[in-house]
Amino acid sequence: MYAQRGSATSHSSVPTYAMWSTSIVYIKDASGERQRCRAVLDNGVQLNFITQACAKRLQLKSSGASITIAGVGANHMNAKCLLPTTLSSQFDQYATPITFHTLPVISSQLPSHQIKINHIPSHVLSQDRVAISESLTAQSTRLGWVITGKINDPLSHSMTALTSTVSNQSGLALCATNVSARQHEECIAEEHFISTSQRDDIEWFIVRLPLKANPETLGESRTMAMKRFFNVERRLASDPSLSIVYKKEYIDLGHMRIAPAAGSSPTYYLPHHAVVKTESITTKIRVVFDGFAPAKSGLSLNDILCRGPKVQADIFEILLSFRTHAIVLTADVAKMYRQVLVHPITYGTTSASFLTTRCIIQLANEETDPTIKRTLAEDFYVDVLISGANTDDECYFLYKELGSRLQSAGCPLRKWCSNSAPLMSRIPTASTDPTYRIMLVDEDTVSALGLTLQPNSNTFHFTISNSEAPFHSTKRGLLSHINLTYDPIGLLTPALIKGNILLQQL
Prior knowledge:
five-stranded antiparallel beta sheet; 25 strands; globular
């Protein structure tokens, strides 16, 4: 049930909303399966319309014909005619053949409104038409009960002023990014990506490092890199199993080869070391490259690279949006920093985050489906997808389409997880990757952008450090202890603020 604003308002007036009669229906897709869709019932239209995104999800085929639609204000647009399909009720056996015409959108984002019907006696609900209030009427149809009429907005007195201050989540002052205020270096990195990035024969991204200085200024770096390499070798020699794991994946994937002899051309040798992360369910040992290692000149590779702008939304925005979904879906890109081809290596450098995340934004820019386009642009944080929808079918559409888009770009998604058991049952396992799908039971949890998500209870959990190890009895020590609890969206602020108040009183 949706409401459409019917009049302009000032700070003191109460706007009137016209209730749009809507119903959940089933529509057969191209394979003959029924999928849930929300239908707007409008007595004034002469044709049946469907959004392009919904038609694509259902894989409905075009008949080849198209017509011109004239709307309010004599605005015209073309609508393609689709082959007939079947619309059916979710309550009984009612079904009817139907032919749709596609439009980019049918309505704007409309607010929902709760209607209290608990005051209506149960025996009255058996009638075909019931007056809920003076302006609202419930009508029984073959597609279920629908509500029509007008309704006043109880929050209208402050909503107009609030709307001008906070138009949407992405406009929150706490996390807004002023693109026009990009620093000069960030603009250079963006222009460099646009002019030099390309796709290879299998559609993988190829990027170039955005240099802001001549690499010859670095000087000799082989001596430093060899010293660091021998230190790594000595550490690995004491743990043969660690040594095998450290090299095996790079050899198997073709990401490592014997370095050529030093030549006359400028070369920067990038040192690396092992980081062990025992709690990881996929990569227990990670190879970390050090782009800050100084060459003989005292400069490092990162010193001559443009960092690049931040192109993805903040964690604050993403988590706020994530909490609005009834069905949630999480995944991450497998080995993301190694899935983007580069001249030469990119990961471990200042520009690595920009180059890889910018590739995802580029996929969003090239996308035509509005739902997938928005998800690629707004629901990724580096390599982590944290998104959702209102129904299992909509989430499954995200799973299929996002997986396909990123797989084609060489960035396969894995560690799929959801709070919906029916949805997870539709996601298959992968014989080549045991972590492709994560099935959780009872109180199992999964990491979500630094927080712990328990899908079965739909709750976020926090890791509270309760270490008994002594810390320095100083303001700095107390501040460090307070900040051990990671709380990106401020849910624990009422409790953590006490520590900050104590700190101010010292």
